[in-house]
Amino acid sequence: MSNELLTLAPLITVIVGAIAVLISDMVTPNRNHAPVAVALAALGATAALLISQGGSSASALGGSYVAGPFVAYLGLLGISIVAITLLIAPAYLAARNYPTAELAAILLFALAGAIILGAATDLVTLFVGLELMVIPGYVLAGYAKRDPLSTEGAVKYFLLGSFSSAILLFGIVVLWGAAGTASLNGIATALASGNASAGLAVALALITTGSAFKIAAVPFHYWTPDAYQGSPTPITGYLSVGPKVGAFVLLIKLFVIALAPLAALWIPVMVVLAAATMTLGNLVALTQSNVKRMLAYSSIAHTGYLMVGIVAAGAGEAAGVAGVLFYAAAYAFMNLGAFAFLTALQDRPGATTQLSDLAGLGRKHPRMAILAAIFLLSLTGIPPTAGFFAKTYVILAAVQAGGPATILAVIAVLNAAIAAFYYLRVIVYLFMRDPAEPAVQVAEGPMLRAGLLIAAIGTVALGLAPTPIIEAVIQALAT
Amino acid sequence: MPILSLIIFAPLLGALGIAFLPSSRPSLVRFAALGISLITFALSLGMLLGIRGQSGEFAFSEQLSWIPSFGITYHLGVDGLSSALVVLTTLLSWICILASFGPIQTRVKEYFISFLILETGMLGVFLSLDLFLFYIFWEIVLVPMYLIIGIWGGADRIYATIKFVLYTLVGSLLMLVAILATAFSHQAATGSWTGAFDLLALRGTITDPTLQILGFAAFALAFAIKVPMFPFHTWLPDAHVQAPTAGSVILAGVLLKLGGYGFIRFAIPLFPDGAHLFAPLMIALSVIAIIYGALVAIVQTDLKKLIAYSSVSHMGFVTLGIFTFNQQGVDGAILQMLNHGLITSGLFLLVGIGYERTHDREIAKMGGWAVRTPVYAALFGFFLFASVGLPGLSGFAGEFLVLLGAFIANPMVAGASTLVMILAAVYLLYMYQRVFTGPLSPFLKGLGAKLTDVTPTEILTLAPLATLIVIFGVMPTLLTSSFAKSVETFLMSAISTVGQ
Predict the structure, then answer these.
(1) pLDDT for residue A357 is more than 90
(2) Cβ contacts of residue B334 below 8 Å, gap of 6+?
(3) Averaged confidence pLDDT in chain B
(4) Has residue B391 got a pLDDT over 90?
(5) Does residue B198 carry a pLDDT above 80?
(6) A448: which of A247, A259, A319, B209 is 20 to 30 A away, CA to CA?
(7) First to last CA, chain A
(8) B181 closest CA partner among A307, A402, A408
């Protein structure tokens, strides 16, 4: 029993931390720093526990929860995402009279969901983890409750998210029935020996559709631009990273592990979805004049690149999953960094994020503009940044897998060139245009600066010295 | 002492140092940048002197493990070919920095930081022996050049700079896929990632015919865009016209050479079968570039654009020479790269000097310039004749050897290309006549006292180039002997394993 508690300790710490945040807010209301401090302390404790658990894997809850290096990697990544969000959000929220404590608590609950998702070994636990991770997202999307855009985005996100959860759940149930077990490995064994049945086909179709909604793959992406644009900027940053990484864990568990024997069936679908996702995401991002919305569409394109890794993994390349995990870390740092930059520009309510607002920022705030340029170059995939190595990793996996994955790799790099156009256009405005009148204000509180700095260090370090993360990823997949 | 790392990273470290200098003291920034580039130049000369004492194909080798999971190493090395290009780069870098003292008056600090980072990128490309490392430097070159054209360029700079980046990026990204495919084929064949990205380990081991063809096609596209070969050259005139003078100089002097170097160092030795398959196409495109570039240059009305198109024509000789696969052709191609680097850089510097005074490059507005500024006109004439290929100046030897090589490979091709030597004389001399001879044009007369002759600083930027043009014109063997071993190795590795 005590062993089981130890295994679950990180999860429990996160949940206790979330409750502590709420209590601290009740004890000292209207003190924004207290809940953030409590939340960061909880994150630190969780990180320490995850690191101490390290490489050894142990199971709990009757084997449906297995902690190990995979969970440790995802947990630490999730902690980084939540920590950066918590650093960049308070100033933005305070300027608009939105509470901070709720954000901290909600993010911690979502993190608990992500940890469960990573540790799940059966369909039920997997689904519970997924829902615990995404439901906080619906709340967050509607965080600016007096802003009609935010409410609209939240409603769309909630309705489509619920539909897709239902569809996914149907698929999971049918799969359970067809395979006769809820265990992910058990399903893989059962499918490998059994014959394909009509029920299995239905399950595959439903699961593919539901998952595609969750990762926002084209043509199931319609909720993202609205949900992302309506949400408060730092929350958009979180929404574009956290739930997306979680959804890819779902994909790894469902497709790469459980449905691996059916890879020949789902790979073609995934190839088409991936190609459509990155191409459409990029083409629409090209036409945006609002940077926040542009980043929303570009996050769709990044979904496509991540799917390249899933396809490679389906074709039997372990490097595919490794690539997805590395990409997730790189994407988290660079995308959160880009959103932290936008947050800094919106120091007062009503500040927009039009491209023209950024004109001449490089002259007025050179340090901020240089940081933004680093994030944008990384998102483009220019070396020596995290984004470059991440793209290289998934493309390498795709090239190894061969066949349709190789064609997908070529489509992915051509897409990177399209993406270069709109990312670099932001740099054009930052450095090559004359300052806008009135010049945009930049708010740089110490916390925001810390968040930006962490994101920037992550973005550069993962590009210059990717070896520690590569080794962590390989270790995470060893068991 | 890791001299190659020192050479590559001296400019980068200098750029970091300059970042901490105050923007309010531009002249301090200027001299700091000049000092750093001169130190780098001195280091590269030291490398050149030391290289003779070294044995093996590559001197001063450095190899450190970098990303061991994929066998990616930090592997540097220098041979005759790359040492010549390295010195060309370090030479042109300080010349460009000196030439930017006057023209660049806004955001001086950012400009010199960009320029020094650019230098690091270019040197890295010439010195990398690991494909992954090479690719990283190759891409790093893009960013500062993008900023230099986009921030300090002319009126249409943003269009030009985005076009430049997108063209280059499409080619290089496909090359990345080819690099990864090559590495993976090595891993699949040997069962280990060790050496999967190492040029020396990979050379001659790629036997898969599909990879030979597709790999070569992807590499060749990246390099062809950079050279640029017809029909991928359309970014070049825009970039040249919009770039500031130093940007044009470094673009013509070094960046285009990255393409030619890429063919000789990477594309052909790695994929000889693919190279031989594509050779007729490459030769045809080279000849088209030679003729087309010259014809288009004749009708240009903008001085800079005229020289940009002459670059397309001259660089056609480089690719033509490379794909003859014989010693004369390849010798000529490398000579042509180095000479074009010296001569065209000089011409762009001169156009820039003129632009500083007139703020115009319209040929039709000029005329009789020699009356007012005889030294300027004489210098322009000197570089112009070098560009035409006057015997005794360095431009002649390269083109002559390329044509000789082409004649051995295919007399028809050589004949067609030789005719262009006449066209080159036509467009350059016709331009010179319109700009410098005759009575002083009303436009130039209107400038009055502003139309001054070259300053001592400007002569300082041109003198090293002019001296080298004369030295290498009289004694081209100084160069050919220095890279003879590189050419020999190249020709060995370029032998196709099938056919022939």
Answers:
(1) no
(2) B81, B84, B260, B264, B321, B398, B479, B483, B486, B487
(3) 89
(4) no
(5) yes
(6) A247
(7) 23
(8) A402
CB-CB contact of A288 with A422 (8 Å):
yes
b/e map of B176-196 (b: 16 or more CB within 10 Å)? bbbbbbbbbbbbeeeeebebb
Is B143's CB within 8 Å of A392's CB?
Answer: no
Q: Pick from B147, B137, B271: which is nearest to B199 by CA?
A: B271
Q: Structure tokens of B151?
A: 């921030």
Long-range residue pairs from A23-31, CB within 8 A, at least 24 positions apart, any chain:
A24/A101, A25/A99, A25/A101, A25/A102, A25/A105
Q: Could you read off the pLDDT of A109-155 as tens digits, one per residue? A: 999 999 999 999 999 999 999 999 999 999 999 888 888 888 888 99
| Tokens standing for residue B244 | 């500031």
The residue among B226, B328, B320, B214 whose CA lies nearest residue B270 is: B214
Q: Is the peptide bond before A219 cis (omega within 30 degrees of 0)?
A: yes
DSSP for B135-159, please give it.
Answer: HHHHHHTHHHHHHHHHHHS-TTHHH
Domain for residue B92, yes or no? no
Mean pLDDT for the stretch of residues A333-350:
88
**Chain centroid offset of residue A217 CA:** 13
How confident is the model over B430-445, as a mean pLDDT? 86
For residue B386, being part of any structural domain is answered with yes
Tokens for B62?
A: 């450095």
* Token pair in block for residue A233: 């900027």
Average pLDDT over every residue of B71-85:
90
Q: Where are the alpha helices (DSSP H) in A315-403?
A: 318-345, 361-364, 366-380, 386-401
Q: Which of A399, A416, A421 sits opposite B173 (nearest CB)?
A: A416
- Regarding beta strands A58-60 and A65-67, do their DSSP bridges make them parallel or antiparallel, or are they unpaired? antiparallel
pLDDT higher than 90, residue B12: yes
Average pLDDT, chain A: 89
Closest CB to A413: pick one of B143, B174, B183: B174
- Please provide the DSSP assignment of B86-107 as one string: HHHHHHHHHHHHHHTTTT--SS
Instruction: Judge whether B409 lies within some domain.
Output: yes
Question: Which residue type occupies B327?
Answer: Q
Residue A250 CA to residue A252 CA, distance in Å, equals 5
Longest CA pairwise span in chain B (Å): 74
* Distance of alpha carbon A382 from alpha carbon A366, whole angstroms: 20
Residues of B in contact with A396 (CB under 8 A): 70, 180, 183-184
CA A39/CA A25 separation, integer angstroms:
11
Residue B362 resides in a domain: yes
Pairing state of beta strands B59-67 and B72-78? antiparallel
Measured between alpha carbons, how far is A150 from A143 in angstroms, rounded to an integer?
7
Kindly report the pTM of this predicted structure: 0.90
- Using an 8 Å CB-CB cutoff, list chain A residues near B173: 413-414, 416-417
Residues of A with CB under 8 A from a CB of B: 362-363, 366, 377, 382-384, 388, 392, 395-396, 399-400, 406, 409-410, 413-414, 416-417, 420-421, 424-425, 427-428, 431-432, 466-467, 470-471, 474
DSSP summary character for residue A269: H
Instruction: Name, in order, each residue with C-beta under 8 angstroms of B447's C-beta and a sequence gap of 6 or more.
Output: B357, B358
The total domain count for chain B is: 1
Q: Are B81 and B212 in contact (CB under 8 A)?
A: no
Residue A6's pLDDT band, with cuts at 50, 70 and 90, is: confident
**Which of the four pLDDT bands, split at 50, 70 and 90, describes residue B281?**
very high
- A399-421 residues labelled b (16+ CB within 10 A) or e (exposed): bbbbebbbebbbbbbbbbbbbbb
